[in-house]
Design brief:
about 180 residues; alpha/beta; six-stranded mixed sheet; 6 strands
Length: about 180
Amino acid sequence: PSSDAEQPPSRAAHHVGVEPVMALEALARFGGVKRRLELRGTVDGVSVIDDFAHHPTAIRETIAALRSQVGSARIVAVLEPRSNTMKQGAVKAELAPSLQGADRVFCYAGPGVGWDVAAALAPLGDRATTRDALPVLVDEVLKYARAGDRVLVMSNGGFGGIHATLLARLAERAAVA
């Protein structure tokens, strides 16, 4: 006899008392997981996307997943190194390679980041900008962003409300144009 782990999904659902038809209906309604390529809004053609990616492996895979969805559209990565591992610089050597798939990178080197983020991102050349003031970083993202861009915000925290700020400022910019 085979183990439960080897059973097809329909048998697994049935095994725990869920009819396969009900399982398929539930899966069809599943909207995805919060903070995984979650579209927060699109204003004036610029999409602001939130993702929990907070270490190089997750960053690389998140950018690759978004790239597979958007093709050649520009991906503007906005990163807050907020986790303890990131703040300590334990994975700083892996950071620039993890961001290679983005067209442009903006990184917030905020309070508690105890290493030279700009130096770690130097291999990205002029595709990377590092700032230690969030309002300045937001201004630079907005100067760069244009219709068709996907602004991918990555942090394991609230990132100072950057999603709402970007969307509001994009709306203001569109109203003036």
